[in-house]
Amino acid sequence: MHAEPQPPQAGWPRLRCLVESLAPRLSGPPPDGLGLCGCCRGPAGRDSSRCFQCDLHAELMPGMLPDVVVPVAYAVKGGEHARNLWLYKSGQPGAAAARVMLGALLMVFLADHGQCVWRRAGMTRPSHVAVIPSSRGRPGPHPLRALVAGRVALPWAPLELRSAIGKDLRNPSPDRFRTGRLPGAAVVLLDDTWTSGASAASAAAVLKLAGARQVAVIVLGRHVAAPTDHPAGSSFSPEAMPFNPERCAVHETPAVAAGPRP
Ligand SMILES: [Zn+2]
Ligand SMILES: [Zn+2]
Questions:
Q1: Which end of the chain is more exposed for a tag (fewer CB within 10 A), N or C?
Q2: CA dist., res. 198 & res. 169, Å (int)
Q3: Distance 18 CA to ligand 2 centre (A)
Q4: Which ligand minimizes its atom distance to the CA of 223?
Q5: Which one, of 139, 149, 132, 258, lies nearest residue 187 by Cα?
Q6: How, if at all, do strands 177-178 and 160-161 pair?
């Protein structure tokens, strides 16, 4: 992100090695995969190109949804990636290792697929970066911000939780957060885990109300149920979608990027 991420101290070869070592144990959405929600890449509804939650968010906040949502990988319940996403902010043994792994995954993704995300969001390049505040209202800077701090040369768009407790967190609302004025901004909104998407939808809405022209959400893990918990007859299967560091959910092959053939 000068988009281009700054070379971190650990060095790119080490970061890429880490991602390559993790990749065989991850799953991730293939580019514009069939049967996936066109927004969050979870399982799509039977009669919709989106999942129930994303359909609901579109209905509740028309015109204020993120321009694109790109999960780096699936966070399968009980799996290693889901565990790392919990561990990295836990302070428990293994937290430091989880932070190194998630930091590598995010920085390599931004370097390799940032352009894919900006293009799909309709921005030339981002002007600001923001992290979705935790709904638990944990004090201090967000642990995800610490993962990218000093590595991303973009100004931070202010984004704070307005009220942590006593609010209905199931439905999205721009009232959940506050920000400053952001006329014409193109914001990359980072989050660790996407569960219902209500906080990302709320954050995108408040940024757009503040004047942001585009909001692109990148999420480290799109939470999905464990394979044994998928409803009978569901065709959604993360195991059938191996993570591939060379492509992303909105990856375009050169032929596709060049437009339809005559
Ligand atoms: Zn969805
Ligand atoms: Zn890509």
A1: C
A2: 7
A3: 19
A4: 1
A5: 132
A6: antiparallel
pTM: 0.91
Which residues contact residue 34 at a Cβ distance below 8 angstroms, ignoring those fewer than 6 apart? none
Query: Of 69, 72, 68, 70, which is closest to residue 121 (Cα–Cα)?
Result: 68
Give me ligand 1 centre to Cα 211, in Å: 24
Torsion sign across C-alpha atoms 45, 219, 209, 164: positive
pLDDT tens digits in sequence order for the chain, 262 residues long: 555 565 555 688 999 999 999 999 999 999 988 899 999 999 998 888 999 999 999 999 999 999 999 999 999 999 999 999 999 999 899 999 999 999 999 999 999 999 999 999 999 999 999 999 987 767 778 899 999 988 898 999 999 998 655 556 678 998 999 999 999 999 999 999 999 999 999 999 999 999 999 999 999 999 999 877 777 677 889 999 999 999 999 998 765 555 554 4
**How do beta strands 214-224 and 186-194 pair?**
parallel
Ligand closest to Cα of 109 equals 2
β-pair partners for 73: 221
126 neighbors 118 (Cβ within 8 angstroms):
yes
Q: How far is the CA of 251 from the centre of ligand 2 (A)?
A: 4
d(CA 197, CA 57): 8
DSSP 5: P
Asked whether the beta carbons of 69 and 41 are under 8 A apart, the reply is: yes
Contacts of 254 (CB under 8 A, 6+ apart): none
